Amino acid sequence: MFEPTGSRRDAASTIFNLPDYRVIDAVEGPGGQRQVVVQSTAPPGCPVCGGISVRVHSRRRQVVRDVPMGGPVQVVWDKRRWFCAEALCPRGTFSESTIQIPARARSTARLREALVAAVVVSGRAASETARAFSVSWWTVQAALSAVAVLLEEVDAVPVRRLGVDEHRYRSVKYFRRPDGTWRRFEPWMTTLVDLDTGRVLGVVDGRDSAGVGAWLAARSPAWREGVQVVAIAPSAAFRKALTEHLPNAAISVDAFHLVALANDMVTKVRQRITRDRHGRRGRLVDPAWANRRLLLRGANTLSAAGWARLERVLRTDDPTDELGAAWAIKEQVRRLLSTGSLADAHEERMRLGAYVLAANMPESDKLYDTITAWWASIEVLIVTGVTNARTEAANTAIKNIKRTGRGFRNENNYRTRILLASAAKTAA
What we know:
This protein is α/β, with parallel strands linked by helices. The chain has 3 domains: about 10-105, no CATH class; about 155-255, no CATH class; about 255-385. Helices cover about 45% and strands about 20% of the residues. The protein has 16 helices and 12 strands. The strands form 3 sheets. Strands 1, 2, 3, 4 and 5 form a 5-stranded mixed β-sheet that branches. Strands 10-9-6-11-12 form a 5-stranded mixed β-sheet, sandwiched between helices. It has a two-stranded antiparallel sheet with strand order 7-8. Helix 7 (about 235-245) links the parallel strand 11 and strand 12 (about 250-255). Helix 8 packs antiparallel against helix 11 and helix 15 (about 390-405) crosses helix 16 (about 410-425).
């Protein structure tokens, strides 16, 4: 019969697995509360002279927060104070400290790592993580803030392609003015993303030129010189900030937003035609309203049945042919953006202008004016192919973070959560 030759204390230390510590006692209190007493095994080195001590000055017990081990466990550190062995050292005595529990710490390093991993990697809410690990919300947030300080500085990250796009930070609110009217308030924030890696570089207040401009002004001249192309939505505010702080960077307008503007034009034409014909909004009995999503589909994605439905809608619910003209202009915009050369783009633009002139509608005229105003950026898009796809993906991840946390009230905590999640994702 074989029996283990090691002590039960060594086995307990192995199971507890706290580096530089051994278990010296474990008791179960009333109500099933377990208490584990540990003692440091690290050499007691003086923090001033580095000398290793051999004489214990005193002992005291300190409760330390640690990860659950088969359920909640109260960890008690049998902490010793030592005499310094060097006679010339000004430090007469010193307390123990280890990598797991540094000086003045009340939580183990592995607990802080577990808290950060639960929130950043697993995507759990800070409040949920706090309940799971039996700690306070403040402990979780302190661990996240400490890790955020270690993130690589933005100026140390070379960026060739930058993406800028806005997202709504909190829900829309309404405030009553003194005169009784209501004011709509939308709390926007702007995301800046490295389009090569997808990493979120910064999150600034608002969606105007001031916030983006201040963030760019804080970057080093070398960093700004390295940016070659910036992808944005057709926003004059963003373009103003980029022109001022990144004069050498080419500005590419995102194709998704241009197609969205074309779709909005089709919708506005459809709504105007319905109001003019029926004096009301569209209803299910109106073929154009019932197939409103079909009108926004790309022609190259339609099946034979989809084409038949579209033709039926334009034949039966488009007496002025304006809806069909709007749909054709929308498709021409998509063809223009899918061209592979500037020559083809200029040819498609001329064809688009002819369509708009023939349609003679205020909605399509406004769309064409927008394309004309942003034509230089459209040329950059066609030549470089740089879009805001990674920025939109980052905004989608940000929305998931907001939903998980049921919203955020503190902007700094909001930024910390976004930057940590993005850094962890891109590092993986």
